Predict the structure.
Amino acid sequence: MLGTASAVEARDVRKRFGPVEALRGLTVTVRTGEIYGLLGPNGSGKTTLIRCVAGLVRPDGGALSVLGDRPRDAVASGRVGYMTQVPALYVELSAQENLAFFAALMGVSDADGRIERALRTVELLDRRRSVVATLSGGMRQRLSLAAALLPDPRLLLLDEPTVGVDPGLRREFWAHFRSLAVAGVTILVASHVMDEAARCDRLGLIRDGRVLAEGSAEELRSRAGTADLESAFLALSEAPS
Amino acid sequence: MNARRVVAVARRVASQFRRDHRTLGLLFGAPILVLALVGALWGSSDTRVTRIVVATTPPVPAPVLDALRRIDTLVVSTDSPEGAMQRLRDGTADAMIALRAGVARTEIVVTLEGSDPLRTGGVLGAVQKGILSAAGGAPGAAPPLQVEYLYGGPDRSLLDHLAPLFIAFFAFFFTFLLSAVSFLRERTTGTLERLLATPLRRGELVVGYLIGFGIFALLQAAVIIGFTVWVLQVRYQGSLATIFLIEAMLVICAVSIGLFASAFARTELQAIQFIPLIVVPQAFLAGFLVPVDQLPDVLRPFSVVMPLTYAMEALRAVMVKGYALADALILRDVAVLGAFGLITIAGAIASIRREVA
């Protein structure tokens, strides 16, 4: 069951990059142990919010707490895993060497055991010695996920985790995300893929740096009175806010 | 060949250029910057004064001294032979003139400092001209001139004198470029973002880079010094350990300047564009092409803020003049390089911002 405490608490968060107002008073509560989907078009502010939560960007205004702490403190304590949109890996190093490096940075205990488990989870154990430059795009995406899983995070941030991943692997990814959530891990995932969004416990529809609507996929559909999530999204984003 | 396709390619290249303001700026700005430096360095028609010190024993005839003093390109002073030698050594005089009783007749001995071939020729010319005109202008009128050198001398090749500068310059150049380009890759491939979303601190990242790069940079320094000394057979004085220490301090500066500079580039091409902005001016102003104290007044302040100035000065003092680490000049230069290292490390850390749009 979902916990009552919140893993991420964003209140009226604002962020501006020069002339671009990326977040305009965004308010979101991600409950502990749920899979929360940020759903919105490109440029809506999903990635900026995730980067704020990861402690990479400091909001200009509003309040943001992550696992009860300031974002950077939560990240520094090693409780947050972050999978970037592009698989950020060292292409000259092997899969194993990449994970060993990130494990060392995150202060993971029993690194060898955890690396092996992470590689098994993403089904790359047999390619552990392969140099990343020789891996396919999907394999790199899987390795990137493995790196995010290494510290046994309490909060997993996924920025469009299945872009470029084939449907079979996407299903496996989501099965894995679900089992993590069952084990108590909170997952905040940014996506613009509707079938992915439907697998989240709750969704926040984001546009122009604001949350337009929030609820489960079912709730959003019935609120908009549409048959599918995509139409619901379109209906809700066109409604006057 | 299809003209339309050719034109399409040419047009596309031109459009890309038009949008890349930095490359455009460099294309036109860099040659002007470099030419302006060349103009400032060599274009000036000012006659530089040469400071000569005349040894008082054996006494130089007063008419000769007076004649020398009347020449406006010379600043003439007198001192005891020991005092005159000391002034040559500490750089307050460019040449020393003394009389020496020869077998047949008295000869004039001109002693030059000799560590910098760029300077030596000019000084010798000025002194010769001065003595000739003091003697009344006729070549036969002046007593024979004997030229000696405080450091080195005609048996030294140009390479012996320039090797310290090359050793410093190449170590700086390659280390700077490599660290700038490789840290730029960290910034552009997203791995920096990932690293910053871990408990890793920015200072830890920079110091880690310094060590990782530093090992290879020091190996490179050892190879450069070894090749210079054993393969090129450059004659040097001073200890190899001191030479290596100075080189090590310089490459630490080079790595952190590289990390810092990478913050201002978005592509590897832009990182390479730093060469005319950071590397070439240092070559011009740090004593590579013109002795630092002969730089035009407007340019001299720049040489003060360039680590290469101090590394070149110290390496030349050790390799050509035989200075040791304990000498005040070397200690000062090493300390200045250390301070540069700390400042550039702080700059590199500050350039890694979590905030990247």
